[in-house]
Amino acid sequence: MEKIIVCYKWVVDENDISVDYDGNIKMREPSYKVSLYDRNAIEAGTQLAEKCGAQCVALTAGDAKSEKSRKEALCAGPSEGFAVIDDALESADSLLTATILSAAISKIGDAQLVICGEGSGDVYAQQVGPRIAAALGWPLLTYATSIEVDGEKLRIKRDGSEGTELLEAVLPLVVTVAGDCNTPRMPGLKDVMGAGKKPFTIWSPSELNCSAEELVNGLATMEIIGNRPDRKNIVIKGSGKEAADEVIRGLISEGVLG
Amino acid sequence: MDFDFTDEELLFQKHLREGVERLIAPGFKERWHYDGLNRDLLPPLKELGLLGFAWPEEYGGQGVILPDIMHGIAFLELGRADCSSSIIFGATVECAEVLMELGTKELQDEWGPRLATGEAYCGYCFVEPGMGTDLGNIQTRGELQEDGSWIISGDKASVSFCTSDAFIVAVRTGDQPGAYGVSLFFVPADLEGVSVSIYEDFGMKEIGRGGVALRNDRVPAKYLLGEREGGFKPIMHIFDAGRPALALMCIGAAETVMEQCVEYCKQREVFGQKLSKYEAISFGLIEHKTKLDLAKMMAFKAFWLRSQKKWNAKEAGQAKFYGCEAAFESIWFCTRAFGHLGYTSEYDALYRLADVMGFAWGDGSWEVCKMVAARDEFGEEYLPYTRRKRTDAVSK
Ligand SMILES: Cc1cc2nc3c(=O)[nH]c(=O)nc-3n(C[C@H](O)[C@H](O)[C@H](O)COP(=O)(O)OP(=O)(O)OC[C@H]3O[C@@H](n4cnc5c(N)ncnc54)[C@H](O)[C@@H]3O)c2cc1C
């Protein structure tokens, strides 16, 4: 394996989002970060690259804000970065994002493995990885909890409610990783200071030979409203069996049990 | 003027906050009761990438100097979780910088690999039972022997990390007055004449403060740090970084308590309203937050001046006395807002208050910080002592 491409999205840090009394989302000068599971993708790609002497390359697509992701993505391991930037990519739908990313993957060239997070930290549609696989015509494995290289093959684990699947896959391949796939490393001072020195290429969609028909965003965001659950604050007094029965009755009447 | 951190500083802070929450914050209250240098904090500090600064890579170090602003950020972030972790980290940086700048190659080769990786630890012995603020009054004596070694005798007090493997010790070797006759030595703790006694402290227990007695210890010439009788300048240089760092550590602790308190006051009802609705609470919280924010700016200014190789003793002193006091008052205010629960071990406010209190003295009392700042602001007439001239004569 020569080249691994890890895809990531630059999203609003959820710690900077709050919901007011009327359910409006409040984001005062939010900060941005590499989306949660994409950090697992970057870590998985970096570990594999270290193991088999391959190159790990980071790739993102988004509006101009995404350029800012450069140092954060590259201090986490990848040796080079690419970003497809266009204002039309702000809140792009999964199809548009996957179209752009797969065109960029082809342009970067020589990649045998593409790793994405299972879903993004903001929309969590879980579609970009599968759609990239479809666009490239490569096989796909989703929700991997571990990826290991075994010669020319990969061994991939997936944990589900029914048990654990151990799969063997051949390259080329698209994998999406789950949050428990690994613990992203703590970049050291040298990684942080060196990130800005790694090559980072910015393309516009027109440089990817995507046709105008392909660059259509099918998703329009009408409104984002917060969900502020009203607590019922039901207090059950008493103790022992009586109180426990009361709790169970309450849960049944709320539709939680039964 | 630019009040923002650089991209790199922001990244360093972001990762550190996350890592500290994962590796240092859990178990704070349980660890708090520890007595002695808690070496269990060294592996997480290593995982956070905070060990080995200033040591070369061949010793297992990082081969880079920690930039000043990041030094401050690290203290702030560690202080949010556990003040002891801040200074356990900070002393490794100071030790490395002192030994790499002033130590002989032999000493560096011998101790560097263990100190760089956290396998060994080094404390500082400046203060003595008979003096603290007037550091120039050091009584511990060093006598030069014919073979070039030194015999050192004296008592050191209030030594953080007194169960360390080695110490940097301030010793009077010359007859010049005050600060001018002082040299710095590296003294391994396993020398026969070294003995330690741990104090029963009311906070910062994971650093294990105590007394260190030196009884006729023979220290080889290779352990003299820098020039003979040139020991005071490096001590002051350590303080000029240590003071704003400790301020940021205390501010970090206060921020943690305030964040808990802000949440608590949104939930707790008295007289039919949430506590947050009462101005006694909201004005108090914002007043304390303002002081913490101001102190933070002053501390980072002190670090910034240092990074520009500019004189920063005034700002370092201002940050220390103002920042530590602001942190103390802020935590105390929040403790009261928690009601009786603030007085229980369920909340960590009083643990953090006790930790922060230590820095009414540690690394120079608030008073000496004011003294230094007043000297730089108003002139030498405002010092309680007269600075003496260095004489050229060096004693035997
Ligand atoms: C947690 C902690 C960690 C420490 N770690 C170390 C360490 O690692 N190594 C080390 O060498 N020391 C260490 N110290 C000691 C610290 O540096 C001293 O406590 C400090 O310098 C003050 O000295 P002192 O306690 O002897 O007080 P003193 O000098 O006796 O002063 C007593 C009081 O009088 C005030 N005062 C003194 N002179 C004046 C003046 N001219 N005008 C007005 N007020 C004055 C002081 O501020 C103080 O409040 C530590 C202390 C603490 C609490």
Order of helices and strands of chain A: EEEEEHEHEHEHEEEEHEH
The count of helical stretches of chain B stands at 11
Would you report the number of β strands of chain A?
Answer: 13
* Molecules bound to protein: flavin-adenine dinucleotide
Which radius of gyration of chain B do the C-alpha atoms yield?
Answer: 22 Å
What portion of residues of chain B is helical? 40-55%
Head-to-tail CA distance between termini of chain A: 52 Å
Q: Percent helix among the residues of chain A? A: 25-40%
Q: What is the terminal-to-terminal distance of chain B?
A: 52 Å
The biggest sheet of chain B, with number of strands, parallel, antiparallel or mixed sense and barrel status, is: 4 strands, mixed
Structural features, described:
The complex is a heterodimer of chains A (258) and B (396). Chain A has 258 residues and is of the alpha/beta class. Chain A contains 6 helices and 13 strands. In chain A, the strands form 3 sheets. A 9-stranded mixed beta sheet of chain A has the order 11-10-9-12-8-1-6-7-13, sandwiched between helices. In chain A, strands 2-5 form a two-stranded antiparallel sheet. In chain A, helix 3 packs across helix 4 (128-136). The longest helix of chain A has 17 residues, at 36-52. The mean pLDDT of chain A is 93. Chain B is an alpha+beta fold. Chain B contains 11 helices and 10 strands. Chain B has helices spanning 7-23, 28-31, 42-47, 68-81, 83-102, 105-117, 232-267, 279-307, 313-337, 349-357, 366-378, and strands spanning 122-125, 141-144, 150-159, 166-172, 182-188, 194-198, 210-219, 224-225, 269-270, 273-274. In chain B, the strands form 3 sheets. Chain B has a 4-stranded mixed beta sheet with strand order 1-4-5-8, covered by helices on one side. In chain B, helix 4 (68-81) packs across helix 7 (232-267). The longest helix of chain B has 36 residues, at 232-267. The interface between A and B is medium-sized, with 13 and 16 residues. The structure holds flavin-adenine dinucleotide (FAD). Residues 123-127, 132-133, 158-160, 204, 209, 358, 361-362, 364-365, 367-368, 384 of chain B line the site of flavin-adenine dinucleotide (FAD).
